[in-house]
Structure formats: structure tokens, C-alpha cells
Amino acid sequence: MAVAFKARVLLELGAELISSDPVALYELIKNGIDAGTKHVEVHINMLLQPSAYRALFNAYCGTQAKDWDQDEFLADLDEHLEDLAPEVAKKEFLNSVGKPTSAHSAFEKLHKACFEANSIRVVDWGHGMNKEELQSSYLTIGTPSRLKQKIAILDSGSGGRVPLGEKGIGRLAAMRLGHFVTVVTTKKDSSQDFQLVLDWRPVFSNPDLDASALDFEPKSLKARQLPKPGTTLVIQDIQSDWSLSKLRELADSDLGKLADPFASGYANQFIKVFYQGKEQNLITAFHSKNLEQADAECTISFRAGSIVSQVAGRNGRVQEARLQVTTKYTRFNKTEVLLHEGAHLADRVSHLPGGRRRKNAGEKLARSDEVVAALASLGDFEAKFYWFNRGRLIREERDLWRDSLEKFVRSWSGGLLVYRDGFRVYPYGSAGDDWLDLDRKALASSAYKLNRAQIIGYLRVSSAKNGALQDQTNREGFRDCPEKEALRRLLRQAIIADCKTFLEKVDKQIKGADEETIKDIDERIADSSDLVVASLKGLRDRVPAEAETVQAVLHELAEVQDAWERAKQALSAKDSEVEKYAHLAGVGLMVELLAHELARSTEAALELLEDKKTARDPAKLQLLAAVLKTLDRRIRVIDELSIPGRQRKALHDIGSLVKLMKEFYQSKLDRHQITMNVHFKPKASFTRRVEKGQVLQILDNLLSNSVYWLSRRLERDEAPTIQISVATGSGAIEFVDNGPGIPVSVGEKVFDPFYSTKPEDGRGLGLYIARRLAKENDMTIQLLPAVDGKHRGFLIQFAEK
Which residues on neighbouring strands pair with residue 150, listed in sequence order? Predict the structure, then answer.
């Protein structure tokens, strides 16, 4: 048998599914745009607001109704009429109510009067419809006519305007505004107007009503009502209040943003609003000149493609996905251009931006593999936003803020407004929508406040390029899909990890080194050290025979912590801000690494000890011995940093320092199946007068970065390898790996303070500090020349003896 459904399904698709009055009105305006109109008129006439009607009804017919008094009722009614309604209309309204003799008859007449007097009229001058089109398209819920039109335009590649609607249910939005709709329409060269009356009131009053009981039939009108081709929707039985103040708010928050104002400041002037018969100039032009007062601007450009460059036969290589983020801190005339592709881009959409503070920061986000794959099907897009530092503007530009910027920023801020084919996608950019979690991120940050209240901007997508981004039926954004999640992650990375980081970096350069960096390192050292101590004590209790080794580790760790505390105390007595923070941060980062590796080793040992079979299993005993040997390696490296007095220049064998760091990293290299080769040319090493601990810090940073990116490489045709060549004659160390490399567009930026290409664990201090420490030891550190657009390693050059 055929599927049957109740008429209330239509109610769910219209009055219930459309989330708000603005969205309902937008749906009706979109219908006019798709009909080819040059402008749309919205006429609203209200004599008695629905809330006023309910208040009167409760007063005279409610549970505590007052005694009936005709004069008092008419006086109350007159008092509740809309002030802005024309006097003639008020008089006609009161005449239609007459002089009722009871509350029952009064509200019968009042209900009819409100039905006739209150209306919303949406007028377009598009191509209109004839009787057959009203029957076959307008009355066919879910009609595919617009969808077919859209597909035909996209397939033809003609570049024609793509219809905004495609689901065939937008017309039902009218029932959210009112329960009685009259459509009057005509086409060019037609000698008749046609009318369709849609009375939805039975649907609301009778939930058992079958859809087949709704019998709406278009008819021809004898007299012409329309002066030219187009369509007029008259909505009656209005359900909510429509005041001039509501319209002003609606114009600011919605009507003025329906078409992309960033492309044209007058984009939304095609909408004309009339209230109580008078045109209201509510939709003002977008004053793009105010954007010049922004402290910074950020442009985001994405080119869809594959993450791994693949050969595509005669056509050459498959296009690689690429994200470019250009941030201009106009207040300080500073600009940064970042280009992300390959493994770097895959890593950025696989982790939270700036997520080092959260637990398990190195773990991938859910669905990361399918999100990375969706970078090929997402399609190209562009976004741009302007950042207004409200606090600074209020302090330093009070008059400018009060006179023009305050209202502008309040009206247009809210995050990125999303425009597809030039028209808005709801609810993005609305006050209650934070789909990028920018506010939550800002509130969680102890530093910079890059929140939605300070951002004015847009995201532009198109039906042709971004076909996977489909609207939800309730107009509450894009449907969930891997492409939507990829879009969200790309934007979050660009805004939070790239733009925000650059703004903070510039501020730190202007204001001096940021004490928050040291505080952050200090907290993480404390956390890591506590974990190490707990693990080591557990190991000592379980393996009494190794108590001496464990105690040595605890002693050396205590020495490191003491050195860290003394360094912090010495810091307060120094004047050179940059120097003192660089030194301290370098020691701190090394201590944190050591504590982390100690924790991993002791946890591994404890896991083996918890296995009762370990004592009887030679292989496991051998593994436990290896873990304890790793602890011994850790002790030797800690020993180099534990006592500040040891940190003075002396003659050291550089090759031995390289070998020491190789031993320190061996377990980590094994864990990630990375091969590390050290070659001496010629076979003998060389010596230099250096601070041993500082050279170890430099080598540690290079190895740490290399392991990080090798473990995240995408092209796995070759085994991950680190090659270190020690040139004895020239006093140089060449450090190369076969990871994703550093893009030429990034290049020397890796040595800038607070710059990092690691999304979830990068602080942007390692290479900056390494270069400063190199300089103090008469060394230089620089990138090796690029190959195929990527720098693959570093060259450390020692000065002559």
C-alpha cells in the first residue's frame, strides 16, 4: 500500500523545523531571489500585537477574569493598539469590533479584526508563476525543480547563478509567521493573476488530520491585482509580535547580512522594509571604511587536494592540498605568511590547535584519517576576518570608539559569517553560534583574547566547489560530514594556532619577553617531576636490588630541580630581559624533556614488574635490564645540567656529545622504528671550547623535532632515518632526516621566538633558543639549502679553534 502521513508532518517541516522568525523570513526572501527579482519588499502591518490580544483575553476570559464592562473593555483595547498604526486604520479596527455586549462576542469580533488587520506581505518582482506551476511546483512539497535547475547549471559550467533553495520546502516557512497564507502571482505576458489560498489552521488544531484532507486549489482572478510579473505572499493569523524595535534589531542582526556585504557595502539594499504603511530605512550600507581601524586582519585561503603528492600519469602530479594563512598586524606593521601542506597540514587537522595544555595532547582527534582524506573533496574556500582590540580602542581611541566603532563592532562581530554563492548560510556568525569554539578557547587562555566579540569577517564557499557542504533541513548550518569537520579544523588552526600565535609573538616582541612562558614551563616541570618521583619510588619498592640506581636518579633529579630554582632566583636580579628568558627557557625545556623521558622509563619498568611472569621469563628480565640501562643514560644527561657551576666553557670532544645524545634518544628511536646513523669524516672527531650542557640542548632540540615529524610522516616508501655527519676538518655537523621537511615559505621563521609548526605540542622556543646558545658558543646553526621546495636539515658550524 502507499505510504500515508498526517498533515502535521507539514507543520514539522515548516512552523517547527524553521528555528526563528528571521530564518523564516529569509526563506521567503530567498524564494524571491531564486525567481529572479531585483528587489524584495517586506510589508508589516500590526494593529494589535498577539501578546496584547492574549493579555486582553486573560483579563476578560481568564481564570481571574474581571466583570464585563463594555466601556472599560473598549478603553483597554484602545490603549493596547499599536501607537505607530495609522489613525484611520485604528478607527476601522475599532469599528469592526463594534460595541460587544459580552466577553465572548467581544473576542469573536476581536479575533476576526486581528486576522484582517495584522499581516506580513512579502513581494517580489521575479518571473512569477502560472496556474500550472502553482499546482505542480508550489503545491508539491519537496519539489525537485530547483535542485534540477542547480544541477543543470553546475554541470554546464556556464557560471550562471545557482538557486539558493533546492529542498522544495522553504515555502512552508511562512506557516511559522502565520497560519493563513495567500499567494498571488502572474507571469510576463500573462493576461491573468492567479491566487492560491493556504489555510493551515486545521493542521494546528487537529493532529489526526490526514494530509489528503488538505485540498488547496489555485484559481484565476477576474480582476488584476499585480501591476507587473511577480509574486506576493500575504501572511495572516500572525503568531508573534512585530514591532518597529524588533524590525530594527532584525535589520542589524539578519536582514543587513543576508547578502555578502564584504563584496559590496550595498549588497542588502535590495530589501525594502515597510512598517504600518511607511518605508523604514533600517538596512544601512556596510561601512567597510571602519575595517581600516582594525588592529589586525587575517586572510585564509585553502586549495583542495591530496595530502601526499602522487604521480598522475601524463598529467603530472596530483594537486596537493594547501592552506595559506596571511596575518597582518596592521597596528605594528608586521606581516606573516604561512603555507601548510603535506604532513604538516595533515598534522594540523589531526590535533587540537595549541592543545599542549590538555591531557594526552599528542593523541590524534577522532575521525582524523577520514578528515585528512576529506581535504581532497572539501573544495577551495577563502575566509578573512578583522580583529578589533576592544580594550585598547576604549583606552586609547575613546572618541573614535564611542562615535563610530562601538556600534559597528557590536553589529557585525560574532565570528565568521558564512556565504555560499554570495548569500548567507545560517546560523554561522550569529550571536548564539560558536561553531569554531573561539569563545571557549579565548576564555581558557590566560594570554590573548581572540574571541568572537572582537572578530568581524566572512567565509566564502560555493555550490560549484564545495558540493559536500549541504544545509541541514532546519537551516541550522551544514550537515555533519568529514568535509565540514575538515573545514572547521582548518579554520580553527588558522585562527587559533596561526593568527593568534603571530599576534602574541608580535606583542611579546614589542613588550619584551613574556613571563607567562617561564610560568608555563615551571608548572609543567613540577607536574612531570612529581610523576617521575612517584614512579621511581614505586620502582625502588618493587626492585630492592636496584635501589641504589633509583636513588641516584632521584638525587640527580633533585639537583636539576634545585638548579632550576636557583636559575629562577638569579633571573630576578638580571636586567637583560631577552637574554635571561632565553637561557631560563632553554634549561626549562630540557628539564621538562628529561622528566618526561624518566617518567616513561620508570613506568615501563613498573609495568614489567607488575607482570608476575617477569621473574621466570628471561626475555622479560632482559627487557627490564634494558629499561634500567635507559635510566642510567638519562642520569648521565641529567648530570650535565644538574649543577650550574659545571656550566662553564671547557674543551670537549664534539663527537662524544653527539654519541651521548644518540644514547639518550635510543629508546625513543626504537619505539618509533627510526634509524639514526652518525658518520665521522674523517673518522676522528674534533674538540672545541664550549659549554657542554648548552651543546647538548642544541642537539636535543634537533633530535626532538626530527623524531616528532618522522613519526608523523605520510610518505612511507622509505624507512624513517636520521643522518648526522660530523666533518672533523671543517668543524661542522650536518643534521638531515627524510621527514616532511620545512617548506621554503616557512624557512627562517622556525628560528623566530614563539613560532612553531607543531599544532599540539609546539611552544616555538626550541630553535630560537638553540640559535642563541650556538652564538654564545661561537657556533652557527642554519637551514640546509632547500630541495624540491623543502629544507631537509640543519648545518651546525663551529668556529675555528
Answer: none
What does residue 178 show for φ and ψ, rounded to 5 degrees? Answer: -160, 160
C-beta separation of 476 from 19 below 8 A: yes
Q: Read out DSSP for 272-289? A: EEEETTEEE--SPPP-GG
At 42, is the secondary structure helix, strand, or coil?
strand
Interatomic CA distance for residues 416 and 617, integer angstroms:
61
Q: Considering the entire predicted model, what is its pTM?
A: 0.71
**Using CA atoms, how far apart are residues 369 and 360, in angstroms rounded to an integer?**
18
How far apart are alpha carbons 426 and 258 in whole angstroms?
A: 9
Average pLDDT over residues 60-83: 92
Are 96 and 109 a contacting pair, CB within 8 Å?
Answer: yes
Number of CB atoms found within 10 A of residue 556's CB: 21
Helix (H, G, I), strand (E, B) or coil at 51: helix
Whole-angstrom Cα distance, residue 54 to residue 596? 67
Q: Please name the residue that has the C-alpha cell 522568525.
A: 21
Contact, 229 vs 187, CB < 8 A? Answer: yes
Least confident piece of the model among 232-241, 609-618, 675-684:
609-618
Cell representation of residue 7: 498533515
Q: How many angstroms separate the CA atoms of 171 and 173, rounded?
A: 5
Q: Which cell is 523 given?
A: 608548572
Cell of 209: 488530520
The cell numbers describing 276, all together, are 504600518
Inform me whether the pLDDT recorded for 24 exceeds 70: yes
Q: Which residues sit opposite 459 in a β-bridge?
A: 383, 418
Label the pairing between strands 278-280 and 271-275.
antiparallel
- CA–CA distance, 718 with 741 (Å, rounded to integer): 14
One-letter amino acid of 186: T
Q: Which amino acid is at 219?
A: K
Say which DSSP state 707 is in. Answer: H
Sign of the Cα pseudo-torsion (365, 367, 372, 377, in order): negative
524: number of Cβ within 10 Å = 19
**Residue 627 corresponds to which cell in the numbers above?**
629499561
Residue type, 24: A
Helix (H) or strand (E) holding 326: strand 322-329
- What is the Cα–Cα distance from 567 to 591, expressed in whole angstroms? 12
Q: What percent of the chain has pLDDT over 70?
A: 73
